[in-house]
């Protein structure tokens, strides 16, 4: 049995191409001396990632009949934030990674200063994209998108989770603290994907709540599998160094729960995520498939 | 003759206190492990700066009768961006500064990773503040504020200017390139101060254009004086290391124009800035005084 349904695989690949194209179009170009910065920004976003977060925006927006160009802009903004976070995470002072998806990380390809600035500029442009009237006619929606992305990626979201992740290298975290860390570090931005799709479509509070519940379970399942891939995978499969958490003596879902229970837990969360979609009476096929995909993926 | 009029000095100090108070109130607190991040964010903003940019927001907003709490929130957002940029600029990979306004820089006081993340979080929260309905009733205004700040601080503004500044260390820039660099690096964010004040007050296009022209002249005058202070001042006066540009062999307004012409040029720009305010028929007293202040300041 293939780990990803052929239709999901095609849909994800289509979405990834469209989002990449959108980012290519939106990101600035220059003939002036600062073009190195613009190149580093492009290098950071054109990295052949799965584009999971944009896919969540697009799939959710589709449920509410949102114009595709609008959804693509919001998806591109979210992906800019995800990519900035990878650039900064890879820096020598942070995870000190030289390899990301089989390619040199930004500070290796360029230099550290350029990588810091490219990350800063990607974070900044995300909000410029969202505030632009091309993203949605209704300024209330645009403000809600800005707010959603800022909260998910800020001190109480992704950046706070990054801080916790650094602290976890020297402090022993229990399962509750690890869950909170991962919810902040990756879960909030994943949840932001479905929430932005719902906001674009002016979804009802009930729909938004279901999407949020779905995305939080999905995010946690995603992270548990990430830990498993780090513990079990090979560098060739995952495109990044593996076994780092264990070497660093860092607590993860896998070190605390063990491999089997961690995998069981991820499956359970995936099934629970799908149940939260029942409000859409089977119309949220892509989102259901993604929940299966994140626990079956090999990279 | 005192270099700053007593009334401007009092007004600037009042504004600085109010903005600092507002940032204190808005910035997140935590009892969890990530509190180190929140402390570093506060450390980065509570640095006793002149709060020039917030003062421009407040003084401009006042011209249009904007509610003070709204103006203070916008001013706080702008200052968060300014302070994030200082934290990142001071990093070892960038300017490698250990001292800022007589105090240890963020990466010295904490560590490099925390400083990077605190900067990221300050940039992010700025947009969260602006998108919040407490900043303005009208979502169109909030979107315009987000847009204005993102453009001024992004790849075509401050971050692009930072990149140029790094390139200027190894490439000889002429006066045109230096002017463009400085307009991007500091000018855009200063102009953003008056523009945000105008946007909050739904200023007419003519008023906005005059404010922009004022701020661009002001920003350039400000930077020329900065270069002069770096070349002439002492560390005790300016609270940061001096003479660095000359040592680095970097072209500045002072190395290209010489001290006297640089000072003349700054004065000319200051007078020109004040002329752009004639549209306000003398009501823009604070803004006029600021234009005099930036060329007379000693730090």
Write up this protein:
- Two copies of one chain form a homodimer.
- With 299 residues, chain A is mainly alpha-helical.
- Chain A has one domain (6-296): Farnesyl Diphosphate Synthase, CATH 1.10.600.10.
- Helices cover 71% and strands 1% of the residues of chain A.
- The first copy, chain A, has 15 helices and two strands.
- Chain A has helices at 6-26, 35-45, 52-63, 68-89, 106-109, 112-131, 139-153, 158-167, 175-200, 205-232, 235-238, 244-247, 253-257, 259-275, 285-296, and strands spanning 99-100, 103-104.
- In chain A, strands 1-2 form a two-stranded antiparallel ribbon.
- In chain A, a hairpin with a 2-residue loop joins strand 1 (99-100) and strand 2 (103-104).
- Chain A starts with 5 loop residues before the first helix and ends with a helix.
- Chains A and B meet through helix 2, helix 6, helix 7, helix 8 and helix 9 of A and helix 2, helix 6, helix 7, helix 8 and helix 9 of B.
CATH architecture group name of chain A: Orthogonal Bundle
Oligomer category? homodimer
Strand content of chain A: under 5%
How much is the average pLDDT of chain A?
93
The largest inter-chain interface, given as chain pair and residues per side, is: A-B, 58 and 58 residues
Relevant CATH superfamily of chain A = Farnesyl Diphosphate Synthase
Into which percent range does the helicity of residues of chain A fall?
A: over 70%
Reading off the top of the CATH hierarchy, the class of chain A is best stated as: Mainly Alpha
Span between termini of chain A: 17 Å
| Spans where pLDDT lies below 50 across 5 or more residues of chain A | none
